Amino acid sequence: MNIARFVPPHRVLMGPGPSDVSPRVLQALGQPTIGHLDPYFIGMMDEIKTLLQYAFQTQNPFTIAISAPGSAGMEACFVNLIEPGETVIVCRNGVFGDRMRENVERCGGLCIMVDDEWGAPVSPEKLEQALKENPQASIVAFVHAETSTGVLSDAKTLAELAQKYNCLSIVDAVTSLGGVPLLVDEWGLDAVYSGSQKCLSCVPGLSPVTFSSRALEKMQNRTSKVQSWFLDQSLILGYWTGETQRSYHHTAPVNSLYALHESLLLLKDEGIERVWQRHRDMHLLLKNKLEAIGIKFLVDASCRLPQLNAVAVPEGLHDPDVRKALLKEYNLEIGAGLGILAGKAWRIGLMGYSARKENVLLCASALKEVCSAPFRKTAE
Ligand SMILES: *Cc1c(COP(=O)(O)O)cnc(C)c1O
User: Fold this and answer.
1) Does the CB atom of residue 68 touch ligand 1 within 6 A?
2) Alpha-carbon distances, residue 109 vs 140, 161, 183, 227 (angstroms)
3) Of the N and C termini of the chain, which has fewer Cβ atoms inside 10 Å?
4) How far, in Å, CA of 172 to CA of 150, rounded?
5) Would the CB of 70 count as within 6 Å of ligand 1?
């Protein structure tokens, strides 16, 4: 056995996540580990709650970070809000909408699918039709920012429809939080989950979630036990908010939470509106640079995500070779196409700390170089 210290290369991360982590966040991560019931640590958890409320633009008291990645936040929303036999309307316009369906079925819920094309936003008209046809439905689930296609859906309108038909909303905000406007209270969203490694630019492995009072009420009135012990939010509540005595539930990922605290502080210090604007600005700069070298966007400008740019692999280029060259020659990671877009699209992330001018310029010039190297053309 000849195993030495692991030293990762310095990459520039411009894929669908994880994004570049700022040096300040990495520094926070390396601070001494303390006990997760230490008074200092509990004080920091309270600050994380306040900072998360700012990021989500909510006053929801139950706003915390689940100790696991975005997929666990997703699962937490579904297992806590759905009881066997309930009807759930799931909007699907990419990979992550389909994962919602998986979750509903595993909770014993009955799924009504509202399908839209990959590359298009969720259609409010189709959702309203489904709500009319299924008055027994109690929940509407949709993805705000579909990372598989680079599409933004109109969360405000979709949530309004859910409310109009007396449904709670479950919203995937994994890629939208900290990248585009997400106004949990103003839009009346009920259960919203996100991830630490996308536009928050923290290390992977944490899932911010927030629940409205209506969602909490539904959880409290359950007749069946939540099938997941770890994700049962009624047990987590005592851990994150125990006003009297914080009880042990699981060992918090102490150092990762230092990192989350720091990344949320960076967000607050820059100001959330300015952060949204920076994502828009960097997206427009990238768009101009890429279009100048003949790379085309796949998504209509009206619903493009600034933080996740889906572009077509230019004709005659071998997708894996290009991405391999970017990684090897430029230490630059961009994302491949997922599902039906595999081999046909690149997903260029401009998330959080990755949304910087130097990254945009590097990406555009590296792609220009690599794509024009004649030996990479597949046609010859
Ligand atoms: C990344 C992502 C997830 C899953 O998050 P993980 O942290 O990878 O588990 C869920 N939904 C969307 C829209 C995502 O982009």
Assistant:
1) no
2) 12, 20, 28, 13
3) N
4) 14
5) yes
Residue 285, pLDDT score: 98
Q: What is the CA radius of gyration of the chain?
A: 21
Residue nearest to atom 8 of ligand 1 (CA): 70
Query: First and final CA of the chain: distance in angstroms?
Result: 44
What residues of the chain score a pLDDT lower than 50?
Answer: 379-380
Find all residues with CB under 8 Å of 7, minimum gap 6, and list them. none
Kindly state if the Cβ of 176 falls inside 6 Å of ligand 1: no
CB 68 within 8 A of CB 204: no
With tokens 């692999």, the residue in question is: 313
Helical packing angle, 319-330 and 357-372, nearest 10°: 120
Boundaries of every domain in the chain: 12-16+271-379, 23-268
- Read off the tokens for 202: 């923290």
CB under 8 Å to 255, separation ≥6 — which residues? 29, 30, 31, 33
Q: Ligand 1 pocket, 205 CB below 6 A? A: no
Second CATH level (architecture) for the domain 12-16+271-379: Alpha-Beta Complex (3.90)
Element (H, E) at 362: helix 357-372
- What is the pLDDT at residue 380? 43
Best residue for ligand 1 mutational test, from 174, 256, 260, 347 (most atoms within 8 Å of Cβ): 174
